[in-house]
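Input chain follows. Return structure tokens only.
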Amino acid sequence: MAAPAQPDRAARERAEEEPGGSMSFFDHLVELRKRLISAFAAIGIGMVVGLIVAKRFIYLIIGPMMVALRANQLEDRLYYTSPVGGIGLIISLGFYLGIVIAMPWVLYQVWLFVAPGLYKHERRAVASFIGSSMVLFLAGIAFGYFIMLPKVLTYVIHFLSDGPIRPLISVNEYFDLIVIVLVGLGIIFEMPVVVFILSAFGIVTPKFLLKNFRYALLLITIVAAFVTPTPDATTMLIFMATMTALYLVSVLVSYAVVRRKRARTLAEGEAS
């Protein structure tokens, strides 16, 4: 009685396949070239737009430093120390804004390149992966901008500003610092996505992650100690709490992936 199920299953699998799976190697190269040109063109257009609006975004970027200076009763001004420092800042900010503006279109081009050769369930997984990566990266940036940087900068400025020494802060050096901190936090927030990939390939399991939680907590403490730019224990605890929460979310992600894989394996076994 199980024999008729085989043709039905094969028909379903064929229905889920896309014509892109039969493309030749040369066709794939042509498609890749097309997507790369479209992505780089979007970045170029985004940079032009970024350069146009960069001056307005400068006041947004320096917001955390303004908060720190005012909290320490200091003049809320930043300076550039070379004649071309202001122009360099506008160009750098325009470049990063261009990447951010173009990123949805770039990710869409990645999707168009990989989607034709995937099954429907794989396409859903890739779409979720791309969307989750973007959301988590932006969440890391928001956490750094609204929570971490104001507190860290306030502490750093206060460290020596209560005496005769006063800070003369270069806006270019501040911009370099904020880019490193925000991008670093964005990458740290990608932890659940990394665990998703490792769980999909069977490298880690929720049981493994929970069993080694104490070692992960030790590693989180070490990373937080190195990443935290101040000796302030409160700031370090904020980093640790955030990374620990991300680790626990990663355990739930791994559990969902493993459970879904087992359910699919059982369904395929019953169908055969």
